[in-house]
Every structure is written in C-alpha cells, then in structure tokens.
Amino acid sequence: IKPVCECNPCYGGPDCSMFLTDCAANAGSGDPYFLEPFWMQRAAKSAILVAGWHRMGYTFPDSSYISTQLEASIHKVHAIVGNAVTKGKYIIFGAGSTQLLNAAVHALALENNSSSPATVVASIPYYRLYKTQTEFFRSVDYQFEGDATSLQNISDAGNVIEFVTSPNNPDGKLNKAVLQGPNSSAIYDRVYYWPHFTAIPTAANDDLMIFTLSKLTGHAGTRFGWAVVKNKSVYQTMTEYISESSNGISRDAQLRALKLLNVVLETGGREIFEFGYDTMKNRWEKLTNTLSVSNRFSLQKIEPQYCTYFQKIREPSPAYAWVKCEREEDKDCYKILEEAKVDGRRGSAYAAEERYVRLSLIRSQDDFDILIQRLSQLVKE
Ligand code: PMP
C-alpha cells in the first residue's frame, strides 16, 4: 500500500485502489518506472547507506573525480552485454547523458579549428533536447541547423556535428549517421542500446557514444551518464567541460550507480535484461493487438532480429510507440488522442508532422494499463 500522495493520478481512495474514471492516461514523459518492480524485489541488496562523514571532499582519495571501481563496472557491463566496444577508450561521467550531449558538441566543435561555427544536425524525427540545448547555450562555436538529410548532397558543408540516436527516440530505429564527409563527426546517443529495448545485433564501435543509468537501470533521478570516447583530445575537452561546469559528478550519485550496476552484474545482467525485455515485449504486443482492430492508427514497423546478447531472434520491445493518424482529416493526432484521454507527445516535438504522436511505454504498469484501456475504447468507437 502506497501513501495517498504516491497514488497514480488515475487512482484515489485510502489505498490507491479506486479508479478515477475521468483521468487521462499518462504516456507523455519517459520516466522509466517499468523497472520499479525489479528494484522493489531487490530492495535490500540495491540499497546504499551513506554515513555523514563519508566522501565529504571534492575528489576521491586518488585526487580523481571519477570512481575507478565504477569505471571498471561500466567496462564490465558493456563487455557482458556486448553492446559497445570500450576497450582502449576513455570514459567520462556526466550529470545524466544530458550534460554529456553538450560536452560532446562543445568538444567536437573545437576539434576543427575553423573560424565559422560548427553546424549541428539530426535526422527527423529526433529527440528535442538536441535542438533546445544547443540553442540554449548560444555558443559562438556551434549552431543547430535542423535536419541532417538536408546536408546529404552538399559537398562542403563545413564542420558538421550529427546527432545519431540509435535506437532512436521516438521510433526505436537503429539509426546510422547519414553524413560521412571528412569534416563531419557523429555523437552516437546510445542511451536505449540495451536488451530491454532492442536486439543487440553487434557491439557498437563508434568514436563517441553516450549512455545513461536512466535507461539502463531506470534511475533517471540519480542523474548519472557516461560517454565512451576514442579520441584523446575530444576526451580531454569533454573532461574540461565537466570540470569547469560542475567540478565532476556527485560522489553520492556515483556511489549509488556503483551499487546498482553491481546488482546488474551479479547475474551477468540476465535478471534485469530478461525482466526488461519481457515487460517491454509484452507491452508492445498488447499495444499492437489493441490498435490492429482499426486502420485509423498505425505504429512504426520493427522486425524481429537476432540478438547477440540473448543469442536468439527476439521480438520488438521499443521504449516508445510512434503513432501515426492515418485518416486524411486527422492532421492533429495529439488532439484526437487527447480527446480520448490519452496524453502523449506531439510529433512537432520531434520536428515531425502533427500527424504523429509519441506514446511512452516505459512508465509504470498502471500507466500502461490505463493507456491500453483508453486506446481500446477509442478504437472501439
Ligand atoms: N538521449 C535520449 C535519446 C533520451 O531519450 C534521453 C532521456 N529522455 C536522454 C538522452 C537524456 O537522459 P538522461 O539525461 O537522463 O541521461
């Protein structure tokens, strides 16, 4: 029983069991509550208790900002999952991957000693923060220009930095860089490249890759992410960025990340990835079945694919549904879903048409069940 203040907003009463018939399904934000039951079952072994005197200083005893134990656990988790080559590469910690995304733009922009600002692009549909964050800093070194494909046939586009999200938010596709020129570099945002959300066809070996605890263990609130970087000078500039902006990452967050990763590693990742994959696969199956009775809405197509981690062909299990309203007159898909009491995210938030809406599938089971209820009702009508 949860305290009333912790009830899902669709439930009320003294023990959160009363369904409030009028509420909207929350399929908006990407809070990864689907992993909450996993951690509830491992409450004691995943807990940390920090004494008041512990780690009061700015650095670890070896004068570093980075826990070497945590760095070793990160190498290990990539090695057992086989999702990224980290050997011989540098690892940088950030306050979530959010901080590292801009650290990477900053570092790549400075790599090329050009007098004009670097152009920052991404393929549509793309995660909104790439644009909002890049514009927010108003740097003289880089500028957000939008769609990557618009530069595809330009022979000298100057220094270009391409965000590649793989799997993509919102549509779960395993994207690859569309720009390959001598002056272009890519930031591979691989925060969803874990067996919960996708097959792992191969170990990614990109020059700059970004990961986060938020989507691996689900602890978005801990604000801990890491970058895996091949080039030494990019690594040094990113490290300087983190040092100048925040004097390194909270030692408390690192301690919690270490504890959680070590629970993940206990079973070679089997327990969390099987739980994550089963949960997400079942949700995708339910959603596709629910929408299949109508041709008014369609979903992105993801084929079953061989996964080197599970060593079998596995079914799709994306973090988000990228819903398209198919009818000519349904131009504002968000509004149609909103009227049916489904709260998603507008296609325009991903630089796509309003005919699209993203629905988050990684929230709690209550949120997902209510989403299915609302959608069943809508397609029935
Ligand atoms: N990249 C992508 C593609 C995301 O979807 C998110 C979270 N929604 C992030 C980065 C940021 O995650 P965090 O800062 O929690 O690591």
TrEMBL record:
Residues 26-379 form the Alliinase C-terminal domain. Its cofactor is pyridoxal 5'-phosphate. Coiled coil: none annotated. InterPro entries: Alliinase_C (IPR006948), Alliinase_N_sf (IPR037029), EGF_alliinase (IPR006947), Ethylene_sulfur-biosynth (IPR050478), PyrdxlP-dep_Trfase (IPR015424), PyrdxlP-dep_Trfase_major (IPR015421), PyrdxlP-dep_Trfase_small (IPR015422). Keywords: Aminotransferase, Membrane, Pyridoxal phosphate, Transferase, Transmembrane, Transmembrane helix. SUPFAM superfamilies: PLP-dependent transferases. GO terms for biological process: amino acid metabolic process. GO terms for molecular function: carbon-sulfur lyase activity; transaminase activity. CDD domains: AAT_like. Belongs to the alliinase family. Homodimer. This is Tryptophan aminotransferase-related protein 4-like.
